Fold this protein.
Amino acid sequence: MKKGILGGTFNPIHMGHINAALSAKRQLQLDEVIIMPSGDPPHKEVKGSVTKNARFEMTRRAVEQYEDEGLHFSDFEYRFSGDTYSYIILGEFKKENPADELWFIIGEDSLLTFQHWVRPETIAKYVNLAVLPRKDEKTKKALKRTDLLKKAKEVSEQFNTRVEVIDSELFDVSSSYLRDELSKRHFGEDFSDELSADIPKGALSYIKEHRLYEDIRLTGPKVSFDYEEARKSLKNRLSKKRYQHSLRVSDTAFSLALRYSYPAYTARVAGLLHDCAKDIPEDDYFSIMKDNKLEVSKAEKRSPYLLHAKVGALIAKKEYGITDPDVLASIRTHTTGEPDMSLLQKIIFVADYIEPGRDKAMRLSEIREMAFSDIDLCVREILFDTLKYLESTKSDIDPATRETYEYYRREFQNG
Ligand code: DGI
Ligand code: FE
Ligand code: FE
């Protein structure tokens, strides 16, 4: 088989990578191109606050869509720990694929510096090189095609391997431009339309869900928010028990956010505030709902404490200056949930249930484990147990709780 290998940090992966892989495949008549995200490369820092796991997952989801066109995702390099120099990775890959003709896809810039890579002669033993020209309008540095072909020939002769220049130009988009664009977008703003031409669908939805690339300094609420100040204010407005519960939910949300690559500070704030309306008189719930022209449902009339979630979101906005719609939604839905929740909504829903001070619910240790292994299944199971509990106590069940359970049962059937 003839296989192409396209490595990179894919931070983030974009249509330039996909087009490069498809062009190389077409021109060199490769059977497939393997997209292989790197671990953390030794010679260059990975920019942005995105973890190796997140780069891996986002790339996997992006490539999924191009399976039929012969692009395949591989965790081959990712699995290596320690030094991941190309000569080592390609050597190991060749060992596992001894009969294959391998083409290593590199950019024009990499061809120019190929001599200075670590052990280029070793690399050349394992693979041929497929070179993607730089787009020349933007950079004066791009070589003229004749010069590039000359350079390719030079490298080919020096290292005794085939070097082919790909006809199509690199798609005019760069990861650093996209990181920049993504870092300007915050707080659940929908950017899918603007960037959908540049970023493959699977990757874009993953970026959105996990709010990757948000400026780390701004991942809290937009209006300057002082965690310590809010903590003190909650200490005054909540009972001691409720206040301590809020701190534990905050910490638990923080841990879950780290686990699922969500901006951790944002989750910490949402956790802190989620029950901010808990200890106000029920009459106030109704008047606050009315002031905000919000309808009180039948279930809420019968069990007014349910309203602490919706009213909590209103108070978080008005009194604590929270503008982040994702934070507000996570407070609003923390008691009943809602179908198709955002990652933060799920984090808060789960954190509230599993925080270390809880000890009454059944199956807690199982549910705690699930929280860190599969958050969707965990949401489903929490709802299952909650409904069972509510039925056993003959409580009035909010249709939202049932709808949420039905949604997660339907969508997440395995496990
Ligand atoms: O505010 P917390 O006690 O920290 O936690 P929470 O806001 O999740 O509220 C938990 C309670 O809410 C728990 O006893 C179950 C109850 N609950 C959840 N869904 C429903 C519900 N109660 C009623 N009546 N109906 C529901 O649909
Ligand atoms: Fe609550
Ligand atoms: Fe709570």
Strands lie at 2-8, 32-37, 71-73, 101-107, 128-132, 163-165. The first helix runs from residue 15 to 27.
